[in-house]
Structure formats: structure tokens, C-alpha cells
Amino acid sequence: MASTKRLLPLDGIKVIEMAGLAPAPFAGMVLADFGASVIRIDKFTLKTNMDILSRNKRSISINLKSPIGTSILKRLICYDTDILIEPFRPGVMEKLGLGPDILCNLNEKLIYVRLTGFGQEGKFSNIAGHDINYLAVSGILSLLGRKNENPMFPLNILADFAGGGLISVLGILLALIERLKSGKGQVIDVAMVDGVKYLSTYPYLMKLTNQMWTKPRGENILDGGAHFYEVYKTKDNKFMAVGAIEPQFYAELLKRLNLDANLLPFQLDSSKWNNMKQLFTNIFKTKTQEEWTQIFYKSDACVTPVYELNYKIPEPTPKLLRTSGKLINNIKYFLKPGEHSREILKEYGYSENEIKEFQLKILLMD
User: Where does the chain cross the membrane (predicted)?
Assistant: First the structure.
């Protein structure tokens, strides 16, 4: 009788994730959510790992400064690993004898992902950085913020997770498809600076073609300059988001605010935007968020309440209706380093005596 178990899109794909900060764990988590088997390689000296993106993964702790430790990792990779994700500065893996020139020769089907902030080359490549730095170097930070104020950075979602982690997943999926044709893996170079630039193709082109971004920061339609693309405080000190860009949506907005369009300036007359902002500010203060939500309910005014972040863990997305991702119910927020060392080594053919010898030589934690 045929099995009725639902297969996930990445079932059978095996991933080695070198432990790191947010972008690499996020990439590994996405792959695991959709069925991949993900093993996190933790630092041997690490007692705890505060990575909270560890669901559906297993962990092994190996001393990679030992030749035997690196040989263990090579065995894991050469045995049947499809993907290796490493988030270190350029040259670190080479110093460990684990660079792509070695590992890809040992496993020609290996997809080797190099995830960095600034890339493998260039004047910033060997320095530390975070999301704010990658946004800064990409040029995108210069577009974010209010008029006459310093550029304002968002949460570390844009460069770290979108430009880094998610772009890595995209590269992996492309490489898996290409491998079906060539039978070979490849090295994927993901720089978060490049990733966030790619994600920002639209504003780049709008600015280059002198369309929507023709004025300084905070004076354009989509960066807080326009009254019809703004956040307004309500009577109960909550907020409503307004995004009525198109004329028909703007007309609906004015209607719901009980304003006569014939008595107001033309929507795109930027010289009147500040006055209109003040008008909208005063109007939105007259009702609570819930009252405004009801007023704009089922309308095309593009006005929505600004809700607080809830505490339900986001589901894997996109939702593939036949083979969607999985979200385990009893999620452990923290995966203990080396929690599955013994289990994993046995899977890869190591005997109980060999495992005990590794522990005696302080090569792995369990």
C-alpha cells in the first residue's frame, strides 16, 4: 500500500549550517520549515546558543580547530550533504581547510553558500558590520527617514533577513534547479549589501529616471512627504496607516473623512502637503482607532489600523496548498549546542567507540 505521508517540497535535502547570527539561521530555518534536514554546527566551546531561529534543526558541536574535528565535518559534508551555509568573514573557512576549493572537490554536488555583509572582496569585506551598516553602504539608508532629520534605520529585517537570509534561500533554490540539469553544485556568494540593493531596484530606478524620488529625503510620496501616505495618531493614542496613492483611492479617503475634494488642493500639489497633513492629523485625533477601523472597513481608501506585534509565531510562507511548510507545535526556542552530536555521528557511520574516543580527546560535546 502506498504511503499517505505528505511530502514537503525540500524533503530529502540535507543542509549543514555553520552556527552564526540572524541571516544564516533564518536561511536554515526556512529550508527546515519546508522539509530540509538541517544540522547546525556549533562552536565546541559554546555551552548555550541564543539563536532562536533553530526550529526543526539538530545540533552537533565539533572542535573545528582540531584536524580530527574538521575531518568529521568533511565526512558529514561528503557523505550526502546538499547545501553548506557559512556566515563567516572571508578566509575563515579556508584557514580551517574547509574552503569551497576543497569541499566542492570532495562533493561535486555541494551547494556552498557564503553569506557575508560586504562580500568576499572590497574595502569593507573584512570588517564587522550589522544591518545598519549594510543599509548605509548600499545607499538605501540615505532614503529612509524624515525631512531635516538623520536617516532612520528600520528593524534589522531589511538587510539581515531579506537581503541576506532570504536571498540566500533564493540562491539555494536556483542552484538546486540548475543542479538537476548539470549534476553539479556551485558556490553562492551572498553579500547583504548587494541583496538589499537588489531588493531596492524599484526606488533605485525611480530615482534614476527622476520619477517618484525627485526631492530630498522625507519630501517624496513614499518616504513621508505626502499626507496621503502617512501614519496618524488617533484619539486613544493608537495609529492608522494611510496609503491612498491612486486618485480613486484618495477620493475614497476624502469621502470617508467627510471632506469635499472640490474645496481642497490637488492631491499631488506638494506645496500644500504640510497643510493637508495638519488637517488629517486633527481629523484622525477625533476618533479612536477602532472607530476609524469601522469607518474604513471594506473600503478602498487604503487605510488600516497599526496593530501591535502579536505573539503568535508566524507560519511558514508562501503557502503551497499541496505541500506547504510545517510548523511544529512544541517549539524549543533555543537549541542546545551539541544536543544531537551522538545521534548524528551514528547516522554518519561512526561507532560508539569512535564517539567515546572523540569525547575523550575533547573533540565534540554531547
Answer: 157-177
Cα of 16 vs its chain's centroid, Å: 18
* Domains 14-199+314-365 and 221-233+239-305 agree in fold: no
Which segments within the chain are labelled E, that is strand?
14-18, 37-43, 57-62, 83-86, 111-116, 187-191, 229-233, 239-243, 303-305, 364-365
Q: Which cell is 117 given?
A: 555583509
Q: Report DSSP letters for 61-107, one per residue.
A: EE-TTSHHHHHHHHHHHHHH--EEEE-PPTTHHHHTT--HHHHHHH-
Question: 239 with 233: CB under 8 angstroms?
Answer: yes
- Residue ranges covered by each domain of the chain: 14-199+314-365, 221-233+239-305
Instruction: Kindly provide the b/e burial profile for residues 11-29, where b requires at least 16 CB atoms within 10 angstroms of the residue's own CB.
Output: eebbbbbbbbbbbbbbbbb
The grid coordinates of residue 358 equal 572523540
Question: Do 124 and 196 form a contact (C-beta atoms < 8 A)?
Answer: no
Give the model's pLDDT for residue 4: 52
Catalytic residue numbers, as ranges: 130, 160
Contact 118, 125 (CB under 8 A): yes
Joined together, the cell numbers standing for residue 169 give: 534561500
In 131-285, DSSP assigns E strands to 187-191, 229-233, 239-243
User: How far is CA 300 from each of CA 244, 247, 251, 295, rounded to the nearest angstrom?
Assistant: 8, 11, 9, 11
Q: What is the CATH number of domain 221-233+239-305?
A: 3.30.1540.10
Q: Which CATH architecture has domain 14-199+314-365?
A: 3-Layer(aba) Sandwich (3.40)
Candidates 60, 2, 6; CA nearest to 348 is 60
Over residues 234-244, the pLDDT tens digits come to 999 999 999 99
